[in-house]
Automatic annotation (TrEMBL):
Protein name (database record): Catalase
Record-linked PROSITE patterns: CATALASE_1, CATALASE_2, CATALASE_3
UniProt similarity note: Belongs to the catalase family. HPII subfamily.
Signal peptide start and end residues: none
Occurrences of domain Catalase core (ranges): 25-412
Gene3D superfamilies: 1.20.1370.20, 3.40.50.880, Catalase core domain
Length: 702
């Protein structure tokens, strides 16, 4: 039994009572006996206008779409809960951050940014990570991304940035891609974009799964405690499974093989009971330290390095329920950065200030009027009492007066008394100044933090970034755009600029990078975010054929699935069954032609000489293993299966004599010479799978 969840109770009350039996009716409830032919004059004559059923059916169909989100149009979402580890009363009075025994329902929507609703999931892009907390004090929305920084500093530039990154206006190309002239033109002219562009060129921009990416609130917000004391706060979500991404070559292939890759993964894992989980963390800065940094806390293009201000874990979020209806819930959810609760407040970050205008405005057009908060997914779980009633799509029947103050309605709803602690009160920040349009001098360093990011990357991460810059700029037609971008890169790191310049046919620039360069922040590298060594939910492909050693395979599966929590799929040239070494029927999960190695995290070739021989002779199976190898994935071989891998002569791999049940530095694990038990092998393979990727194989991005 799940604990009582007020949001689920509310959803249940909103469920359509579509009758399980009874005839089809019109919207007016009139019974219909025929819906396949329109009313016409004779069998071959014209359709009649009086066919109200036909007209209603078509009209309703014509109006089934609402405008998609102008950005973040493609998304996937789920319900779940948040619970704090301990009370955060010292810093905030927010009710949902006080009591570890209180679970707050949430809905999270993940999204890509550039592409339309129907675009592919695995594009190089920022991912949205928006959370609506249905708290006991009203809705709180943390509308974040999977990068901790943003492309621009002031919201007034958002339309320019979005126009530049979106498909170009004359031909609406490219879809879901940043590799085009207008984006890089903008980047090369606006160095404030650079830091986020560095994140965009990293593997952070191609997450393996929504379940394995971080989330960030981006802006500096404020916590406010019961005494009215403010503390600056940055919000972080850390995935329990660790941070894992795709490689670019793989991401591109998945766009064709399974454009719904990330969406499907989220859905399937929740359906299977593998509930994704994130730890919620905060970086706290006392108000008096506002100016203690060499960047401005109000500048959304900057991070506070975790080494400088550690992330304190304060709670966890679990997503454990898929929506019932994509349109009603995932599409109609309306986030708004200004949806805050007592204890959380804004700062003067000019990007945040603009967002506080934009999100309400956009919902008015997208959801067709001002009553969208009545939609079930948007409704708070606490009472709503106010005088805002009329307008499109009012779905409730209010009675009584609709103005304040009133005496005729008994004075209801009355405002909370000044002593009522449950009311939201803005932090009384003192602000003096002249009305000006001017960027603060404290916002002007656009190069140190990209350098910090670059210098924090491991060698393979740097190589992937160089490849990404070369790919993106190599797609730009304008040589001037390429040159100007490289000029900007020289201000960050000369070696990077030189490597990119060489790949895109631009003259090698002079060394201009600033010294001293910032000290690396290890927390930024994938190398330090691998998770807890678990292989839970990793997808492992096992290539089988007639003659598979099913007893040995069962023992290994036991380690991987029962102990490790991995998801194992057995793939053969055809669906149905193969025969095992004893001639018994051995079930297959998927036919090889319907899948590809890019859809799995690891591949295993089990023993049984006949099975191994058939795998080695099957082009699709061999391609599968080679691709897994190219993409840095763990590869396992058992018995004769190890021989198959050895036989492929994968670059630099010696299997025979080396496969002793331990993890090789290239993530190839076999039991060939060890005589090791399947259990030993299972454990060693588990270690290789936990590492997720094994770099040092080249080329990985080819
Ligand atoms: Fe958004 N953004 N944004 N954004 N944003 C929207 O709201 C906007 C920004 C983010 O799953 C829109 O309902 C402006 C930063 C997410 O429904 C729109 C500015 C961050 C989502 C809008 C920003 C985000 C949106 C489009 C600069 C990360 C998807 C439809 C001032 C911290 C939410 C909608 C969902 C969506 C405006 C910048 C994240 C137009 C004006 C920074 C995750 O209102």
């Amino acid at each position: 039994m799940r604990p009582e969840d007020p949001k689920q109770r509310q959803r249940d009350a909103h469920r359509a009572d579509d009758p399980a039996s009874g005839p089809l009716t019109t919207d007016q409830g009139v019974v219909v006996d025929h819906t396949d032919d329109s009313l016409a004059v004779g069998e071959r004559g014209p359709t009649l206008l009086e066919d109200f059923h036909f007209r209603e059916k078509i009209t309703r169909f014509d109006h089934e779409r609402i405008p998609e989100r102008v950005v973040h149009a493609r998304g996937a979402g789920a319900y779940g809960f948040f619970e704090p580890y301990h009370s955060c009363a010292e810093f905030t009075k927010a009710a949902f951050l006080q009591d570890p025994s209180v679970r707050t329902p949430v809905f999270v929507r993940f999204s890509t940014v550039q592409g339309p609703r129907g675009s592919a999931d695995t594009v190089r892009d920022v991912r949205g990570f928006a959370t609506k907390f249905y708290t006991s004090e009203g809705n709180y929305d943390l509308v974040g991304n999977n990068f901790p920084v943003f492309f621009i500093q002031d919201g007034i530039k958002f339309p320019d940035f979005v126009h530049a990154v979106k498909p170009e206006p004359h031909n609406e190309i490219p879809t879901g891609q940043s590799a085009h002239d207008t984006l890089w033109d903008f980047v090369s002219l606006q160095p404030e974009t650079l830091h986020t562009v560095f994140w965009l060129m990293s593997d952070r921009a191609i997450p393996r799964s929504y379940r394995t990416m971080q989330g960030f609130g981006v802006h500096t917000f404020r916590f406010v405690n019961a005494e009215g004391r403010g503390t600056f706060v940055k919000f972080h979500w850390k995935p329990k499974l660790g941070l894992h991404s795709l490689v670019w070559d793989e991401a591109q292939e998945i766009q064709g093989r399974d454009p719904d890759y990330n969406r499907r993964d989220l859905w399937d894992m929740i359906e299977a009971g593998h509930y994704p989980e994130w730890e919620f963390g905060v970086q706290l800065v006392p108000e008096e330290d506002e100016h203690a940094f060499d960047f401005d806390l109000l500048d959304p293009t900057k991070i506070i390095p975790e080494e400088q201000v550690p992330v304190r874990p304060i709670g966890r979020m679990v997503l454990d329920r898929n929506p019932d209806n994509f349109f009603a819930e995932t599409e109609q959810i309306a986030f708004h950065t200004a949806n805050v609760v007592p204890g959380i407040d804004f700062t003067n970050d000019p990007l945040l200030q603009a967002r506080n205008f934009s999100y309400l405005d956009t919902q008015l057009i997208r959801l067709g009027g001002p009553n969208f908060a009545q939609l079930p997914v948007n409704r708070p779980v606490v009472p709503v009492r106010n005088n805002q009633r009329d307008g499109y799509h009012q779905s409730r029947i209010h009675s009584g007066t609709n103005y304040s103050e009133n005496s005729l309605g008994g004075g209801c709803p009355a405002v909370a008394g000044t002593a009522d602690p449950s009311a939201f009160r803005h932090l009384q920040e003192r602000v003096d100044g002249r009305k000006i349009r001017k960027r603060s001098a404290s916002f002007q360093d656009h190069w140190t933090q990209p350098a910090l990011f670059w210098r924090s990357m491991s060698d393979w991460e740097k190589q992937h970034m160089i490849d990404a810059f070369r790919f993106e700029l190599g797609k730009c037609v304008s040589m001037r755009v390429r040159e100007r971008t490289v000029e900007q890169l020289t201000l960050v790191d000369h070696d990077l600029a030189a490597a990119v310049a060489e790949g895109i046919g631009v003259d090698l620039p002079e060394r201009r990078d600033a010294t001293p360069q910032p000290a690396p922040s290890p927390a930024l590298s994938f190398e330090n975010m691998k998770g807890d060594g678990s292989i839970a939910t990793r997808q492992i492909a096992v290539l089988v054929a007639d003659g598979v050693d099913s007893a040995q395979l069962a023992a290994v599966r036991d380690v991987l699935e029962t102990a490790g929590g991995a998801v194992v799929d057995e793939l053969a040239a055809h669906d149905g069954n193969v025969r095992d070494t004893d001639g018994a029927a051995h079930p297959v999960n998927r036919a090889l032609p319907t899948v590809a190695s890019v859809l799995y995290d690891a591949v295993l070739v089990p023993g049984g000489p006949d099975s191994a021989l058939s795998v080695a002779a099957d082009d699709a199976a061999v391609r599968f293993i080679r691709n897994a190898y190219r993409h840095g994935k763990p590869i396992g071989g058992l018995g004769a299966g190890a021989g198959v891998i050895g036989g492929l002569a994968l670059d630099g791999i010696r299997v025979a004599g080396e496969g002793d049940g331990t993890v090789s530095d290239r993530g190839v694990v076999t039991d060939l010479t060890s005589g090791g038990s399947p259990e030993d092998f299972g454990r060693a393979f588990t270690e290789a799978v936990a590492a997720h990727r094994h770099w040092g194989r080249e080329p990985v991005n080819g």
